[in-house]
């Protein structure tokens, strides 16, 4: 039987330089836990899978809202594995992520990888609404198939709006039924892990980092706004994470230098 569930996070600045979590509402297989943050200024929430999900036919969603001045980081305890449904009529699963970041607020969305298992069908959407002075760090990683198996069908869409205006709208599709060429040399080129890192920071109003390659299969692209997007391919999840972690370290250093200038 399919599951429909929504988990909700609301972070609020407490007026003393910290962030409280008045709403931490788990839903179905999505259990939310407040965990220790290495930065005292940030609240930290970890998504813990309470059961196998998403399965075919499931409708899952996570809503995370950082109110004005709040600072919150959201991660997950383990990879999310998209699996086939229990029957032939289960249909595709959907997983919706809805992010909202207020004025002067900061949200880090850093889940573990999404694994598209053979036979699964998943439509994933991520929507972010940002105030003009909001800051967002967002990482998405997909692994196409478990060890030794082909990928399932996976479609993803990332939409970001800042101050009511479009900043990024990107859609990808992999696996059976996806447009031809998704596994060719012009797209994946034999790689099984694909990911992206988005940093939206008002500090980049003073100068967005220049476009550049980050190794043989990763690139940094400035966006039409105070934001940069890093897109990367790798042979596996470990190598992909190493590329994106290094990119984030460099970008955070550059944005800090601009804020302190």
TrEMBL record:
<dbReference type="InterPro" id="IPR002669">
    <property type="entry name" value="UreD"/>
</dbReference>
<keyword id="KW-0996">Nickel insertion</keyword>
<protein>
    <recommendedName>
        <fullName>Urease accessory protein UreD</fullName>
    </recommendedName>
</protein>
<dbReference type="Pfam" id="PF01774">
    <property type="entry name" value="UreD"/>
</dbReference>
<keyword id="KW-0963">Cytoplasm</keyword>
<comment type="subunit">
    <text>UreD, UreF and UreG form a complex that acts as a GTP-hydrolysis-dependent molecular chaperone, activating the urease apoprotein by helping to assemble the nickel containing metallocenter of UreC. The UreE protein probably delivers the nickel.</text>
</comment>
<comment type="function">
    <text>Required for maturation of urease via the functional incorporation of the urease nickel metallocenter.</text>
</comment>
<comment type="similarity">
    <text>Belongs to the UreD family.</text>
</comment>
<keyword id="KW-0143">Chaperone</keyword>
